[in-house]
Specification:
Elements (H helix, E strand, L loop, with lengths): L1 H22 L2 H15 L26 E12 L2 E12 L3 E5 L6 H8 L7 E6 L5 E4 L12 H8 L5 H10 L16 H15 L3 E5 L7 H13 L3 E5 L3 H7 L2 E6 L2 E6 L2 H12 L11 H15 L2 H30 L7 H35 L1
Parallel strand pairs: 3-7, 3-8, 5-6, 6-7
Antiparallel strand pairs: 1-2, 1-4, 8-9
Keywords: ATP-binding, Coiled coil, Nucleotide-binding
Organism: Candidatus Alectryocaccomicrobium excrementavium
Protein name: ABC-F family ATP-binding cassette domain-containing protein
Length: 379
């Protein structure tokens, strides 16, 4: 176990170093060199002759393309009552999106539309290449009441041997004779743990989860959160659990009667941006510009964040950088096309779009460097 943990940490550090060097900025190069020196000092553990313990996580069987799901202008009504309309979403590989909002705005219905259990009244949606969909239903409608726990899992995965099936069930706190309980006798938390165990074994690369922490005890929540931390696929989760969202999400989408709003970051970031939107503009009485004041406040807030929160924000910033880099490359390819300036107006619009994208990318690089520097200080 210690060898595996060390190898995972080495791989993580090497990936961070590669990202630092890719940005090719003075701060990031110094940070890369600092991490490389620390990595060289690690006493490497010998690989064990055999490792019998199997570690379960939300591992995807295969990778998706960059675009995982594109939904445009989805709408849904029941008996003449509008749930939502003009809902659009672009999920990219690696996104961890939390869908929040009051009851009754259609969050669960939206998930059911995405997994094919309901149809939208209007709009379009398209999944990308190699997408395998997994769905966690908070009501566990897919479980069979008359089966016992062991066979509920084993019937779905008949190629697994008994020890491995029992090992998975033990991870979700089903041990000994617990595995022979009938599904209809289980509590809500037990049914939830069993549904999560089945989802883990499917190895899908796009997970839709509806209130996954409902009815789960603290131990089960930690199992779920750690599994999602290691997941290299894409996640869209409906949740009211602030702690879960802070641990897992890098984007928050809020649905309400007024419409849909999107926020980069976790739940705390969402709250901060909501509060900022309600505050009146401060008078410039301290000699600082509004931009300078905002940057100072951001640094003070980031300094208070935990290492875990900073790591999540770094990952979110890196995902946004990758997306913007792709946008810049696409615009540059369009600008280089032979017919790009046949229509001068279109050519100017293309140039302006490219300039805005580059400006956004530079700001993202600065934000990432700031986050990475603070993370380095906490290391």
């Amino acid at each position: 176990k210690e060898y595996k943990l060390q190898q995972a940490e080495i791989a993580r550090q090497e990936a961070i170093i590669a990202r630092y060097r890719m940005f090719n900025r003075e701060k990031s190069i110094k940070a890369a060199e600092s991490r490389e020196k620390r990595l060289e000092k690690i006493v490497r553990l010998e690989k064990p002759v055999s490792e019998d313990k199997v570690r379960f996580s939300f591992e995807a069987r295969r990778r998706t393309g960059e675009d995982v799901l594109i939904a445009k202008d989805l709408s849904k009504s029941y008996d003449g009552r509008k749930l939502f309309e003009h809902f659009s979403l672009h999920l990219r590989a690696g996104d961890r999106v939390a869908l929040i909002g009051p009851n009754g705005v259609g969050k669960t219905t939206l998930l059911r539309i995405f997994v094919g259990e309901e149809t939208a009244d209007g709009g379009t949606m398209k999944f990308g290449a190699n997408v395998d969909i997994g769905y966690y239903d908070q009501h566990q409608a897919g479980l069979h009441p008359d089966k016992d726990v062991l066979n509920e899992l084993w019937d779905d995965f008949p190629r697994l041997d008994a020890d491995r099936v029992r090992g998975v069930l033990a991870l979700f706190l089903f041990t000994g004779d617990d595995v022979f309980q009938k599904i209809h006798t289980l509590s809500g938390g037990e049914r939830g743990r069993l549904a999560l165990a089945k989802l883990m074994l499917r190895k899908d690369n796009l997970l839709f989860m509806d209130e996954p922490t409902n009815h789960l005890d603290m131990d089960s929540r930690e199992v779920l959160e750690h599994a999602l931390d290691d997941f290299d696929g894409t996640l869209l989760a409906v949740s009211h659990d602030r702690y879960f969202i802070n641990r897992v999400a890098n984007r928050v989408i809020e649905m309400s009667a007024e419409g849909v709003s999107e926020y980069l970051g976790n739940y705390d970031d969402y709250l901060e941006k909501k509060r900022a939107a309600l505050l009146p503009e401060e008078a410039v009485s301290d000699g600082l510009t509004q931009t300078q004041r905002d940057k100072l406040k951001r640094k003070e807030r980031l300094a208070r964040e935990s290492r875990r929160q900073l790591e999540d924000r770094v990952r979110a910033a890196e995902a946004e950088i990758a997306r913007t880099e792709a946008e810049v490359a696409h615009l540059e390819a369009e600008m280089a096309a032979p017919d790009a300036w046949q229509d001068p107006e279109a050519g100017r619009a293309l140039t302006e779009s490219h300039a805005r994208a580059k400006e956004t990318l530079d700001a993202l690089y600065d934000e990432w460097a700031e986050l990475a520097e603070l993370l380095e200080e906490k290391a």
